[in-house]
Amino acid sequence: MPLLDKIKNHSAVIGVVGLGYVGLPLAVLQTQTGYRVIGIDEDSEKVDLANKGKSYIGDVPDKDLAQAVGTKRFSASTNLELIDQCDVILICVPTPLTVNKEPDISAIIKVTQAIAKYAHPGMLVVLESTSYPGTTEEVIVPELVKRNFEIGKDLFVAFSPERVDPGNPSFKTHNTYKLVGGITPACCAMAQTFYEQSIAKIFPTSSTKVAEMTKVFENVFRSVNIALVNELAMLCDRMDINVFEVIDAAATKNFGFMPFYPGPGVGGHCIPLDPYYLSWKSKEYDLHTRFIELAGEINEGMPYFVLAKLQRILNQRGQCLNGSVILVLGVTYKADNGDPRQSPATKVMELLQKEGAQLTYVDPYAEKFKIGNIEYSAKKLSPALLSECQCTLILTAHSSFDYEMIVEHAPVVLDTRNGTQHVPGKK
Ligand SMILES: NC(=O)c1ccc[n+]([C@@H]2O[C@H](COP(=O)([O-])OP(=O)(O)OC[C@H]3O[C@@H](n4cnc5c(N)ncnc54)[C@H](O)[C@@H]3O)[C@@H](O)[C@H]2O)c1
Question: What's the CA-to-centroid distance between 380 and ligand 1, angstroms?
Answer without folding.
Answer: 32
